[in-house]
Amino acid sequence: MTLTLELPSQLESRLAELAAADGATVEAIALKVLSVGVSMDAPAQSTLSPRPQKVLRGYGMLAGKGPTVDEFLAERHAEARREAEKDERRAQLHSQHEAAA
Asked: Who is most buried in 29, 50, 58, 65, counting CB within 10 A?
C-alpha cells in the first residue's frame, strides 16, 4: 500500500534527523514508527499500548515526552565517541603488546 501524508515541518525534520543518525531513509524510520504504533492485535479504537508509547518516546515522537531530537542525537553522538575511544584504547594496547613481543 502506498500512503501519502502531509507532515508538519517539525515532524518531517525530526524524521530526517533520526534517519540520518541511523543511516536509514526517512521512509524506513516512518515505517518503523508506524509499525510499532499500530497494534495488529488490538481493537481499532484502542489507544497506543505502553510498548509502542515507549518506542515512540524513544524516537521523540510523542510531544513533551521522552528526549528531544537534540537530546537523542547528543546521546547517539556520545555513544559513538565512547565506542571510538574504546577502539582507540584497544588499538594502543594491541600495538604495545606487539611491540613487547
From this structure: 29
Geometric angle at alpha carbon 77, from 32 and 85, rounded to 5°:
130
Would 4 be classed as within a structural domain?
no
Supply the range of the domain harboring residue 42: 9-100
**Is 78 a member of any domain?**
yes
Q: Which helix (H) or strand (E) holds 22?
A: helix 9-22
Domain-located, residue 15: yes
The CA radius of gyration of the chain, in Å to the nearest whole number, is 19
Residue 3 lies in a domain: no
Q: What is the pLDDT of residues 9-52, one digit of tens each?
A: 888 888 888 888 888 898 888 888 777 666 566 555 445 555 65
pTM: 0.41
The tens digit of pLDDT for each residue in 41-70 reads: 655 544 555 565 566 665 555 545 556 667
Specify the number of domains making up the chain: 1
